[in-house]
Amino acid sequence: MKLFNIFLGLAFSLTLAISLNACGQNKSADKNSVKLTSDFPVFKTNEDWKKDLSIEQYKVLREKETERAFTGKLLYNKEKGVYKCAGCGNELFTDEMKFDSHCGWPSFDKEIAGGKIKTIEDDSYGMHRTEIVCAKCGGHLGHLFDDGPTATGMRYCVNSESLTFQKEMAVAEATKTKNNIDTITLGGGCYWCVEAVYEMLDGVVNVTSGFSGGNVVNPTYREVCMETTGHAEVVQIVYDNKKTSLDEILKVFFTVHDPTTLNRQGADEGEQYRSVIFYRNNEQYKVAKSIIDDLNKNKVYENPVVTQIVPFKVFYKAEDDHQNYYFQNQEKPYCKMVIQPKLEKFEKLFKDRIKKSDK
Ligand SMILES: [Zn+2]
After folding, report:
1. What angle do the packed helices 191-200 and 340-349 form, to 10 degrees?
2. CA 46–ligand 1 middle distance (angstroms)
3. CATH topology for 170-351?
4. Which active-site residues does the annotation give?
5. How far apart are CA 220 and CA 222, in angstroms?
6. What is the 8-class DSSP label of residue 201?
7. What is the dihedral of CA 33, 42, 57, 220, to 10 degrees?
8. pLDDT digits over 95-104, tens only?
9. 275 C-alpha to center of ligand 1: Å?
10. Chain segment 310-347, per-residue pLDDT in tens
């Protein structure tokens, strides 16, 4: 993303006629094939890796050592969730891909789609093996064998030290005990914009950018941009009912995006930008329906509201560099031209409802 955005920044300063859409950045960068300065997008010096990793992680990820068999902390883990690269957070495997291989290391029969793992021929120790490394930071993961017992026939034999594990729905579970905490999933165009607004609303506990409503497990941003996954860009909002309400959250939603253009927000065009509310229960459905009915009845917009109200099924978190995007990239043209005006509109209309702690 960084390089794509640098590219966009250059293109932008050369011509003001460029159309600012979120996904188009990737497409235009593809055509011009930006050259990477290192083999992997995440590059750190050995000194920095040592600072950021534990001694054991460093030995395995950066020096390609192997942890002793049957000692890894994730070997017997059977919880639902995602396995990420311990070096850079790249999401590599899900619990559904893990199987018990009895070989002494966590084993998976496939990887999350999207080229997250690279293979390297490895002739060390007088053996011919296929090494697997993280495609983002080059961290050593383990080896790939074609003797797997499942339908794929593959066995990704991975060191526990190379991985971190994120339990599914960690946030939702942690908050289940408090009955004033609720979650809603909304699609209102580019998730960078929608996320930035809700980060500022008082009563919002957590906002995560991701994808919902499609048919591909754990899609990447790039896959969603290709419009083959059926997913919409969404934000998952965890909120405290004592400080805000679904009613207020949806009022903000209808203020900061145009609900009358189904598959388009400004220059962002396509199914992934559809206006949609994913409800989790009857109560949420009723609130959403009644607000939309009111907007239409009172002709708040020139054209009818086309926002879809559909039952929530599953949410997939977007890549880490898509989280909190606006606040990390405020100087980028897309942020200045597209996101900032939406934030300003929000700040004007909901000025008493902005979180007190400054960003
Ligand atoms: Zn990595």
Report:
1. 30
2. 14
3. Peptide Methionine Sulfoxide Reductase; Chain A (3.30.1060)
4. 190
5. 5
6. B
7. -60
8. 999 999 999 9
9. 34
10. 999 889 999 888 888 887 787 877 777 787 888 888 88
pLDDT digits (tens, 9 = 90+) for 349-359: 888 888 875 44
Q: Tell me the CA–centroid distance for residue 181 and ligand 1, in Å.
A: 34
What are the phi and psi torsion angles at 302 (to 5°)?
-60, -40
- For the segment 132-184, what is each residue's pLDDT rounded down to a tens digit? 999 999 999 999 999 999 999 999 999 999 999 988 765 455 545 457 889 99
Q: Is 323 helix (H, G, I), strand (E, B) or coil?
A: coil
Q: How far apart are the C-alpha atoms of 74 and 107, rounded to whole Å?
A: 10
**349: CA distance to ligand 1 center in Å?**
42
User: With 0-12 CB in 10 A as exposed, 13-18 as middle and 19+ as buried, what is 140?
Assistant: buried
Q: Do 9 and 333 form a contact (C-beta atoms < 8 A)?
A: yes
Residue 247 φ then ψ, to 5°:
-55, -50
* Whole-angstrom distance, CA of residue 172 vs CA of residue 184: 11
Handedness of CA 313, 190, 299, 305 (dihedral sign): negative
CA distances to 90, 115, 210, 309 from 97, rounded to whole Å, are: 16, 16, 21, 32
> DSSP assignment of 116-175, as one string?
-EEEEEE-GGG--EEEEEETTT--EEEEEES--SSTT--EEEE-GGGEEEEETTHHHHHH
pLDDT tens-digit series, residues 43-59: 999 999 999 999 999 99
User: What's the CATH number of domain 46-167, 2.130.10.10, 1.20.1260.10, 1.10.3670.10, 2.170.150.20?
Assistant: 2.170.150.20
DSSP 35: P
CA of 142 to the centre of ligand 1 (A): 13
Domain residue spans in the chain?
2-32, 46-167, 170-351
Token pair listed for 8: 């966009």
User: Which pLDDT belongs to residue 304?
Assistant: 92
| Pairwise CA distance, residues 65 & 90, whole Å | 20
